[in-house]
Design goal:
41% helix; alpha/beta; 7 helices; 2 domains; Rossmann fold; seven-stranded mixed β-sheet
């Protein structure tokens, strides 16, 4: 049984979907703890399912690295097999990424590498995109640059604003997250292999870019 820690910052709608899925007896994973960087509304979902919570309040630390150190200590208490960022609106310090990646995954409301960062939905609209999407990826030290595990397109409709578009992306994001966790738990998806393959591809692209054109 795969054990999962979920980190949130806000309402935790993706968390709720994952809790509902993992509550089913046949689902091969269980959420063992929910953590947050601030007092988050999403803690209510954890409490409803009887899941323990912890708070590592960012503003109580002098630096991001100190905050990350405490976050690592809290995760070490629970020893999860996988850490899911579910609306965690905080860039993790390198030490946390080094300790957990590739067993550290995130959801993003865009079809990466398009529109990374905190405003993916707004940026898609500002760019006049006709479609965007949802992505689940491994977390690395970049901003939404890690190896992609699953993604799906979502159309941008006439008259969409950020709220309407995000409301259509969220169900896709939830479905992809639940499926990725299931596939990790059943070993259909190997995070180490996915990460290694992405590194090889990235190096190959760098080599191609650095090779001068031949006459």
């Amino acid at each position: 049984m795969l054990t999962v820690a979920v980190l949130i910052s806000g309402t935790g709608s993706n968390l709720r979907a994952l809790l509902e899925a993992t509550a089913a007896p046949a689902f091969p994973a269980r959420v063992v703890v929910v953590g947050a960087d601030r007092e988050a509304e999403g803690f209510a979902h954890a409490e409803a399912f009887g899941i323990p919570t912890f708070l590592v309040a960012y503003e109580q630390f002098d630096s991001r690295d100190e905050w990350g150190g405490e976050l690592l200590e809290q995760l070490a208490v629970w020893k999860p097999d996988l850490v899911v960022l579910s609306g965690m609106m905080r860039v993790l310090p390198p030490a946390v990424v080094a300790a957990w990646s590739p067993r550290l995954i995130n959801t993003h409301p865009a079809f990466l590498p398009e529109y990374p960062g905190a405003h993916g939905v707004r940026d898609a609209l500002a760019a006049g995109a006709t479609e965007t999407g949802a992505t689940v990826h491994i977390v690395d030290n970049g901003v939404d640059t890690g190896p992609i595990l699953a993604q799906e397109r979502v159309a941008v409709l006439p008259g969409d604003d950020a709220h309407r578009l995000h409301d259509r992306i969220k169900p896709v994001e939830r479905r992809l997250l639940v499926d990725v966790v299931r596939r990790i738990a059943t070993r259909e998806l190997d995070l180490a292999a996915a990460s290694a393959a992405a590194l090889v591809l990235s190096q190959s692209r760098r080599d191609e870019a650095s090779t001068p054109d031949r006459p």
